[in-house]
Design a protein that fits this description.
- This protein is an all-alpha fold.
- It has a single domain, classed as MetI-like fold.
- The chain contains 13 helices and 2 strands; from the N terminus they run αββαααααααααααα.
- It has a two-stranded antiparallel ribbon.
- Helix 2 packs across helix 13.
- It starts with 10 loop residues before the first helix and ends in a 7-residue tail after the last helix.
């Protein structure tokens, strides 16, 4: 028995349905990206006027700036540490909920709440919670004066924004890890338990290998989010300081463009950031995905 192929003959209705989405994508992505591409090869006057074509001069200035390479280094460290921390905590929480420990239904609901909090609100909360003179860590400074001060110590500031960004992504990762764990047939775990495998052994030999596609997906999403969506947290908590210790690539674009009024230099940096994210995603799909086995 052969089934009929369903076709959609009303092309005008299809075009009408997808027009709003295409308009949004063009307005908020392709148009700004095109403007950034044009500005990166020209000299954009900060207070109006005609653009002057300068070719690759903006990119040359960017790559010759040691402060920019410092921003790249900090961004990579921040993205890797934040991704590892967020995914690690989310995996632990999802494993506990999947085992249906007492109260797991309430935990499953509460763990998703942090993802609904906006990044500036997360940054503001962590700024007060980890304040060296009023937060809960202020007791450490009473015992060991000066051990924690993100306003003066660059390492403490990086730790602060890493914790804040990881906390905001734990809920997102938790949902996917829990869905992946619950999609694994219970019969596999039950058979392994009957053979004498302990909880940790079943996790290492059965559950975690079957979560490889979920791991791969979340690594891509978390790294991308760390590079492009961390502005709100950095701006509220540290504002790029102290001494540019948390001057991430996305925040440097804002500083040079809106504070320094150098729109062309900021446009060139935004293109470099976009190409970096695209390259990381391509590398992950080209090489990392080969090690992922879909079942």
């Amino acid at each position: 028995m052969t089934g009929k192929r369903v076709t959609f003959s009303n092309t005008w209705l299809a075009a009408l349905l997808i027009a709003p989405q295409l308009l949004l994508v063009f307005t908020f992505f392709y148009w700004p990206a095109g403007e950034a591409l044009y500005w990166s090869f020209t000299l954009e006057p900060p207070f109006g006027g005609e653009n002057q074509w300068v070719g690759w001069q903006n990119f040359k200035t960017v790559f010759e700036d040691p402060l920019y390479w410092n921003s790249v280094r900090i961004s990579v460290i921040f993205a890797l540490s934040s991704t590892a921390l967020a995914m690690g905590i989310a995996l632990i929480l999802a494993t506990f909920v999947d085992r249906q420990l007492p109260g797991y239904q309430a935990y499953r609901f509460m763990y998703f709440w942090p993802y609904a909090v906006a990044a500036p609100a997360v940054g503001l909360a962590f700024r007060f919670i980890f304040a060296p003179d009023a937060g809960f860590v202020s007791a450490l400074n009473q015992w060991y004066p000066g051990i924690w001060n993100p306003a003066r110590d660059g390492f403490d500031a990086v730790v602060l924004i890493t914790l804040a960004n990881a906390w905001s992504m734990v809920a997102y990762n938790f949902i996917f890890f829990l869905a992946g764990l619950q999609s694994i047939p219970r019969s596999l775990n039950e058979a392994a338990a009957m053979d004498g495998s302990g909880v940790l052994r079943r996790m290492a030999d059965i559950q975690f290998p079957l979560l490889a596609p979920t791991f791969f997906f979340l690594v891509v999403i978390n790294l991308t989010d760390s590079f492009v969506n961390s502005f709100g947290i950095v701006d509220i908590t540290t504002a790029g300081g102290p001494a540019r210790a948390t001057d991430l690539m996305v925040y440097k674009i804002y500083s040079d463009g809106f504070k320094g009024k150098d729109y062309s230099l900021a446009a060139a940096q935004s293109l470099v950031l976009m190409l970096l994210v695209i390259s990381l995603t391509f590398i992950q799909f080209r090489y990392v995905e080969r090690r992922v086995h879909y079942t």
